Inverse folding.
């Protein structure tokens, strides 16, 4: 499917959201492929909500990535090829269990989709989001509801004590963990395994 870029948003110094004019039936948390040419293809979580009129993906720049350098050259009006949706890391609006979302870095993207969807649909879901970043200047979607930001630069890495502090009822919640593999692995070391859904972000 061909999609046209209708807006490019600088979320932080190194993170951009690309809003596309495209029609895709997807659930909050799913992902898609974005192809720039026959040699440059990458998968991205859809950071928009199905309630919004555009399709959006959000990513962080990496100088060593041929793909990211080419993507950063794209402008409003340019076209991309997209394919999707895929993935099972999906919010079930009929699930009554309270949720604990844990995001590291660019792993915030599926939770932006899920929270926007929950707010727009007036879902009666209990959500707490713990968002671990180096500092707030590197945090995308900093104004999301239900969010506690943990700045590792000043507070240290996200650990069990911080989770207990910001989410005292963590034992009763379903855990959703998304971020770099090292962060996911660290959280999984003390998370209740029967209550965890996880997704790693590799390659950025």
């Amino acid at each position: 499917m061909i999609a046209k870029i209708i807006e490019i948003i600088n979320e932080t110094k190194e993170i951009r959201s690309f809003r596309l004019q495209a029609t895709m039936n997807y659930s909050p948390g799913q992902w898609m492929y974005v192809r720039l040419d026959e040699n440059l293809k990458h998968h991205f979580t859809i950071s928009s909500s199905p309630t919004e009129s555009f399709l959006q993906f959000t990513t962080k720049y990496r100088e060593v990535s041929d793909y990211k350098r080419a993507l950063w050259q794209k402008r409003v009006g340019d076209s991309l090829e997209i394919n999707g949706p895929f993935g099972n890391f999906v919010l079930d609006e009929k699930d009554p269990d309270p949720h604990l979302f844990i995001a590291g870095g660019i792993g915030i993207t599926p939770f932006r989709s899920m929270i926007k969807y929950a707010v727009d649909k007036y879902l009666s879901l209990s959500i707490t989001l713990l968002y671990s970043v180096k500092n707030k200047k590197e945090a995308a979607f900093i104004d999301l509801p239900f969010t506690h930001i943990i700045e590792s630069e000043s507070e240290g890495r996200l650990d069990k004590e911080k989770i207990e502090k910001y989410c005292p009822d963590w034992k009763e919640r379903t855990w959703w963990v998304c971020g770099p593999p090292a962060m996911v692995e660290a959280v999984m070391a003390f998370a209740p395994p029967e209550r965890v859904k996880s997704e790693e972000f590799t390659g950025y």
